[in-house]
Amino acid sequence: MDLLTLWNLEREEVLKIIEDAEYFKKNRYGHEILKNKSIALIFESPSTRTRMSFDLAVNELGGHSLMMNEGEIHLGKKESIADTARVMGRFVDAIVARVKNHKTLEDLAEYGSVPVINALCDLAHPCQILADLLTMKENGKNFKGLKLVYFGDGNNVSNSLMIAGAILGMDVVIATPRSYEPNGLFVKKALEIIAKYGEGSLTLTDDPEIAAKDADVLYTDVWISMSDKNKQMDEILKIFPKFQINDEILSKAKKDAIVLHCLPANRGLEITDEVIDGKQSKVFDQAENRLHAQKAVLKYIFEH
């Protein structure tokens, strides 16, 4: 069982992962779910929360983590990804990979013999979004009918938020500048899931003020991701500022709305200090919840 995107999960499976994450948050230690299991953690780019959360999650579940950074393994350099996958399957019980290209994950899954978990790629960030869902739930946000609004660049986070929202019956609004919309395949998949369940909605807009009206959750991410080599900061600073989450945008949401950011944050760009440090911000709870969600993901993978 691999977890490359969220769209292969059913609603009941997502809810069970969140339920397990809640349990692990209340009961952090004393688990042996991964006893005698070794998990390879591949990182092609720098990481704080993803690296810490998966490393600790594996060890606190009784397993052994093997950290493998870019430059320390061949992975497409001097050795094909397919051969690396075949070899790693002889040594470890699962692979957690934070990579630059989604195709790398697909190759690891296709040619390897052990489960592959997407810890982040250019198209999707499923494990982050599962932590986000936990954060919403523990703040009293019922998923069905919840208005979740994402502001900024249509990146991997927005892609995965659309899928999660569709699975759980949310009304998701993605507010981005024109030509910065989320990936078309993920939009298509989200609409298919909405049709399947007959609940929820997806709206794409370039008007952040309309998007923010009566929102339950406001979410943002950096305007330039690590993998965005083609974006120019001068262009970004011309067209993105109106998508900043600030006091004015927050005032248009519901009074009990919460604010999320997957971090790291460029304070003063996509979000202001006043908001990220304000009482409605759950950003640091959200960061902590990565640990508990990663445990729930690992449990799910080894049960299926």
UniProtKB/TrEMBL annotation:
Belongs to the aspartate/ornithine carbamoyltransferase superfamily. OTCase family. This is Ornithine carbamoyltransferase. It catalyses: carbamoyl phosphate + L-ornithine = L-citrulline + phosphate + H(+). It holds the Pfam family OTCace. It comes from the Archaea. Carbamoyl phosphate binds at S47, T48, R49, T50, R98, H125, P126, C127, Q128, C262, L263, R290. Its EC number is 2.1.3.3. Keywords: Amino-acid biosynthesis, Cytoplasm, Transferase. The lineage of its organism: Archaea, Methanobacteriati, Methanobacteriota, Methanomada group, Methanococci. One of its GO terms (molecular function) is ornithine carbamoyltransferase activity. InterPro entries: Asp/Orn_carbamoyltranf_P-bd (IPR006132), Asp/Orn_carbamoylTrfase (IPR006130), Asp/Orn_carbamoylTrfase_sf (IPR036901), Asp_carbamoyltransf_Asp/Orn-bd (IPR006131), Orn/put_carbamltrans (IPR002292), OTCase_ArgI (IPR024904). One of its GO terms (biological process) is L-arginine biosynthetic process via ornithine. The keyword Transferase applies. It is an enzyme of class 2 (transferase).
